[in-house]
UniProtKB/TrEMBL annotation:
Organism: Tistlia consotensis USBA 355
GO molecular function terms attached to this record: ATP binding; ATP hydrolysis activity; L-isoleucine transmembrane transporter activity; L-phenylalanine transmembrane transporter activity; L-valine transmembrane transporter activity
Keywords for the protein's UniProt record, in alphabetical order: ATP-binding, Nucleotide-binding, Transport
GO cellular component, one term: plasma membrane
Name of the molecule in the record: Amino acid/amide ABC transporter ATP-binding protein 1, HAAT family
Signal peptide range in chain numbering: none
InterPro entries: AAA+_ATPase, ABC_AA/LPS_Transport, ABC_transporter-like_ATP-bd, BCA_ABC_TP_C, P-loop_NTPase
Amino acid sequence: MAERSSLSATGLSGARLSGAGVAHALRLEGVSRHFGALVALDAVDLEVTAGERRAVLGSNGAGKTTLFNAITGDFPPTAGRIQFFGEDVTSLPVHERIRRGLRRTYQHSLLFRGLSVLDNLYLAVRGVSRGRYSFRRPRRDDAALRSARELVHLVHLDHVAGTVVANLAYGQQRQLEIGMALAGAPRMVLFDEPAAGLSARERRELIEILRSLPRHIGYIIIEHDLDVALRVVDRVTMMHNGRIFKEGTPGEIENDPQVQQIYLGGGHG
């Protein structure tokens, strides 16, 4: 496990120093998002500390993915303010938020299906680095290639590193997408339903990967599988109708009668 967490060559260790002295990695103040008459987010206040691992849970339509879209800039908020490590990023485009260390995955994998696992990760590393438009073939000791190989190991895909993505199992494609989100020096990663469609064995693999990430990398996970979500986070935020409904530790949320009644059907086994 320690070997998987070193990651000096990937640049992930650099996130430890970024934003030093800033208590909150992410702060949302009165964030709303309207689509015409539809209020998808309604004055959301949220604080996530540096290095924290947070789950955002709720039924379909609660506003979880819209929340992610507002944070990343895919659909900027209609009102409110978003701070990332003390900087106001409310009006910044997506690529500027990426440059500041914010990453995300999506519900549906976005991969280069005709390329290998290693090539996908290499392109992800190059995409967030200087000189990314160079067409020179990488040398054997190329730093970006070394970073890509470390990411292959981090997401447990060493045995399929040369395999074309189209030939991977679905769960392996989800693991690859996590690796791509970790390229460069992320300070926070947003995972959108990474366990969706996974088998029981693949879910166990996902839990191991998320638990083994360097602790200085914070993440927020949207997940319907509570057996995954509650095992990989420090705190939980419940959403309902575009608002924050309740917050607490995994144990507090799991044992909360109101949460069980509304979201778990009286318990989830």
